[in-house]
Structures are given as structure tokens and as C-alpha cells.
Amino acid sequence: MNQTLEQLQARIEDGDRLSAGEALSLYRTAPTWWLGRMADLVRRRKHPEGLVTYIIDRNVNYTNVCVARCNFCAFYRPVGSAEGYVLGFEEIFRKIDETIALGGVQLLLQGGHNPDLPLAWYEDLFRAVKERYPSFKLHALSPPEVVHISRMSKLPVPEVIARLIGAGLDSIPGGGAEILVDRVRKLLNCYGKASADEWLDVMRHAHRAGLRTTATMMYGTVETDEERLEHMLRLRDLQDETGGFTAFITWSYQPEHTERGGREATGLEYLRTLAIARLVLDNFDNLQASWVTQGGKVGQLSLAFGANDMGSVMIEENVVRAAGAAYCMDEVEIVRNVEDAGFVPKRRNMHYEILGDPIFRERDVPRQLELATARAAGDSSVPAELLNYEARSATGKRQRNRPQSPVA
Ligand code: SF4
Known about the structure:
By secondary structure, the chain is of the alpha/beta class.
């Protein structure tokens, strides 16, 4: 390192921007306690009031059928698999009812790239949700899903986004970013679903259309340290351009049951990665703690390494669980961890506006000691409304041409 830690500390204290070389050097060689101290300093500067936020929402995966076949994913099922599913509108409404009962305000709605769900299905679903639950928010469809819908519908991305907004889309989650470097994406077999430029372009168009979105990074597969930093710098550049990102969330690759296999990065690597992200992403206000992949204890420690948000209460989770991690914290447990770390917990919405104190202190809500799943095991029912949409795959066509039993 050409500059000493003292010199770099002075620059960080002055609010100077780190260069790629400085960030890489710190990420590789700075002591972990030092990275934590600097990240905490920046977090406190951005959030001097000592609050830690979280949102009550539900992570619903509307389908697990996917043609992308990323080799790090344990969640998807190929077209025609007996374990493939598409949730019915009524099933999704029931999940929303349960979410509202727990004080929830939105769905994080993502799914596989299912060739048998046309744009009209998404539009009809969003409209139906908004008709029944006008103030409930849809944080839905990561950039690769938007690219998939754009390709299937042969409509440009801005038009797809405009149609989805017209139907009720409120915000786009930053999933599917993995590492925004095409060398890595090719090795992970996720370049085809969206290149780095395509991912960024969806977010650019979403921001231009007035949506706020999040950004993510999944590390710990084949990428180098330089490529992790390149990912962060590309996000920083787009944030300079649009200012549309609300938050950054990073987590480590979860290897169980995946084609790629391998080992998971350690907790220390997570904390170092989070801390360097806080230093590099100087134009992001919010960093989430990924307790869903790291567990509650590392999630709590994240609050000393740059995170100011505990993410979602996470009533349901299917993707990370498929890869071996099934941590569960309900609101009571999140609040306990936040307060024990010396912060004041506050509920927020998708724009990180404060909604209030913990809801369980205002009224009785059921404890949530286990994460729900998309569907009960063995439930292979096909929603009746799917018959209204044209399928593209041979399996989908067969399914839709035979008499269906209505969804229970
Ligand atoms: S990560 Fe998403 S796009 Fe990739 S295989 Fe899994 S469900 Fe499909």
C-alpha cells in the first residue's frame, strides 16, 4: 500500500472517494478491526441518529421453473420437472393476507425464467394484487427476469418496465447481479440470462422511469478480489448517474445442492466484504445485513461493519433454503438483536422511510418461528387461471390443453 492506513483513514474521515486501487489494497491487507472501524465511521456519518431499520415483507417465489440454469442455483427446476410449480393468484393472495396479519407492507416477488408465463400473466397478477390491496407494495422481478420477459414478448426493456409499472410494479429488487463482470457470468452460466451491461441497463431504465431499486452482490464462487471491486465500482458509477439505488446487499454463495458445489466463504470474509462495500459505495445510503445467509449472530455483527438495516423479517424463503441455509428470525428476534447491539429498531418501507416502532409492541402478532415455503411438499396443482395464457414449452402446452382441476 503506497499510502499508510493513517493517511487513508484521514481521507475517509474527510469523505474522500476511494479509488479502485486503494479499495483493493484495503480489502486485501487492512486489518479486519480497521475496516470495521472505518465502515462504522461512514455508517454513523450517514445515520447519526443510531437507528437500525427493517421491513416486514414476504419473499415469494412465484415459480421455480427456469430455463436459465445458473450453476450456482439450487432452487430452479427445468421445464417439465415434476417438482416445477407456478403459484396461482389465489395462493399469492393468501400469502399477502398472512403478510398483512404480521404487519407486512410488501411482497418481494421473484421467480425463475419460466417460458410459459407471458407478460400478460405478470400484468394481470399485479393488477389483481393492486385491486385487492391498493396500498400493498410490489418489489418485484429482478433485472434478469425483466430481460427474460422482454425477450419473450419481443418488447424493449423500457416498454416492459412501463407496462409493469402501469400494472402496479413499485420497485425492482437487485437480484441476479451475482458479479457484474462477464468473465464471471460466463463461468456461472448466468451470462445468457443477462450480461453485466444488461443488468445495469434494466436498473438504469427503471430509475429513469421513476422506480427506486436495490443492488446486490453474490460473492464466493469464481471471481477475483478485483472483480468484486469492479462490481462495486460499476454500481457506484450507475448510482452517480441516476441516484436510483436505495440499498446494497451482499451475501456469500450458498453451495449446497448446487451443480457448482464448493465451499461457503467464512463469516470474516463476509464482514470484510460488507465493510469495504460501505467504504467504496459512498453514494449508497443503506447497506443491509444478510442474516438470511450469515445467520443472526453475524447479521448482528454486521451492524458494526457498515450495515444500518436488517433487511426483511422474511416470512417465507425458498431460494437460500434450497442451497442449505435456513436461518429464521421474526420481528421479535430481529428487534432483540438490534437493541442488544445498541441501536433503536424501526420499521421502514421500501424507500427506507420510517413507518414506526416494532409492530409487536403495538398489537398482538403471531410469532413466526419457522419460515414458510412457496408450497407444501408434493403439491403439484396447476392454477386454473394459467389456462388463460398461451404456453411456449411443449410441457406447458400439454398441461394447458388437458382439463384442469381447480386450485383448492
Ligand atoms: S438463479 Fe434465478 S435465473 Fe438462475 S437458475 Fe436460479 S432461478 Fe433461474
